[in-house]
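Hello,

Our lab assistant flagged a job as stuck in the queue for most of the afternoon. It eventually completed. Since we weren't sure the result was trustworthy after the delay, we are filing this so someone can double-check. Below is the sequence as submitted and the structure that was eventually returned. Let us know if re-running is recommended.
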Amino acid sequence: MKLIGKVAIAVILVALVISVVVLTHIRSHGTAVSLNLGNCTFSGLVNPMLPYDMPPSASYLLLSNWVNMSSLISTGFPIFGLSQSGGLVTMPTSLRWLMVKGIGLINVSLYVENLGNVHGSYLTLNNTVVVRGVNGWVEFMMPPYANTILIIQNSTVPLSYIIETIGNYSYGPIKDGVVIIGKPNITIYSPGASFSISVTGKSIQVLVKTSGFNYIELTINNYPTPLQYLLRMNNERVRSWLMESRRPNLSGCLLNEYYLSLLLIKDSQSPATGGFAASPEPIYLYTWVRDSSFAAMALQESGHYGSAAEYWLWMAKVQNNSGTWFTRYSFFNGDPDYGYGIPEYDSVGLFQIGIYQYYKLTHNESFIGAVIPALNKSLNWEYRAINNNGLIPQDLSIWEDLYAYNFWTQAVDLDGLVASYMLYSELGYNASWILTMISKLNNTLQHDFYVNGCYVRALEPSEVYYQGKTRLILVPSSVIYDSSIILPIDFGLLNPSSNRAVKAVDCVISNLWNSKVGGLARYSNDIYHYAAYLYDSSGENPPWVITTLFLALYYEEVGNYTASLNLLNWAVNHSEYGLLPEAIDPNYGNPLPSTSPLIWSASMYVLTALNYNQTSISNN
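-- returned structure --
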């Protein structure tokens, strides 16, 4: 249906009101409540049908001290299902690298030997990484705001730790340890352990052997700290940060999943830039602007404004002159990935939505003053594009595989325009020109993308010959159904209870729901994870966690909390001990290991959890 004249403006203004509700409905649920972690252990899948003989666990995880240090941990858990041409291999239990703000990547690594085959690994609610092997367990810890990496062990056989630095380093012994001298100084301390040192060229290798219950401490530019003090420091600081979070109206494992997801997001933030790693898995260890924007939204909606602001300010800093952004950036230094030449313009709308949400939550005018130039540039880019042909330019959009006028990009940027209109109006700026863009883009979107009760995935240019002339028209792509159409509706594209919205969502469910293991596939005939590069799925159309949570959020918007709760449970029950993957196997239901955990999945869980019932709960 094409809207014109005063009717169009009236409909748009109604949409604006709806959008305000959607964009700002996640509010504080009162003051911080006591944190009851309970006995939830995230034991894995409910009644799993696994293609292998052990519950799934994460193979890579990030830990951070939340201020200036980040490290990548390989747990050593095997990555099942990848073909020989796949992009990942299983690495031994180790600390792969250490990044320090102001210095960069430090060429130091730590390998754990004699732990035996790893059969489980997980992130705890104390923000530690536990790795369980045949011969015992080790636990990695980076206490918040301390320049220390702590590794606790409990083993039935002696374990060996190989710590290697490469560069302009020297060393000197201390009691129960060694100091590697350079930039920075690294103190290796383990009471009662045996130490041996070898030097080859610029490589210094320290071998530490210890058994039973003991610990190794790596301290950067500082002296060793007593174990009990480090443990107390870590527990108190992590607990305090979690208690500052807004609490959703959930309990048990669902509440614990919320806190665990927040920790995963926090640990994924780069201390150098404020961007977020899409995943600790090496193939996704980049800052995708889209994924990071959802991570920042999750943090600000949960009450952690400083971390979110750090990201939005970085995003404003790296914006292109055109008003757009690169698709992804280096996690380590924030440089654009020029070799990843995939145009994606949803970042424009997500930046606008995120900035408005942040302002509604904080009313921080100095923050708005810092980002408003970037907001203006993004709006000017949209103005030029929409005035040209009524659409945002073609891009590869959310799934990075179809160059077209994708519904996701058009709709997310429309939601972004609505957010910008509301922000400019509240700040007293002229917003009428934004309203004109909203009307024009909405008219095109509603008229051209809505076909037979469904929103089509994308429109592609096609040449037609008519009355002796060739001209371009836009036609639906061959793949019609796409679950990503749901989230823009959640964010205020139209009334979620309207006939059009209900039909569109039902269209997605009827065509993309997996009746065997549950969850929504991305789109019809999706072979990602079932191709040569990532071959860890047993079939096509694996359900994705984010798309399933798009649906859960939609159910909340229409008041169907029972359905939403079922999907939140589905997500937890298909996790790696509470760590949410990108996708699950369409036949077995196990998390697909090549891209797990996914920070966007955790972020969507946080946003959906906070939106659940939208009612406060009393302190216990």
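-- support follow-up --
The delay was a queue issue, not a problem with the job. The result is valid. Residues 1-39, 615-620 have pLDDT under 50 and may be disordered. Residues 254 and 569 are 7 Å apart (CA to CA).
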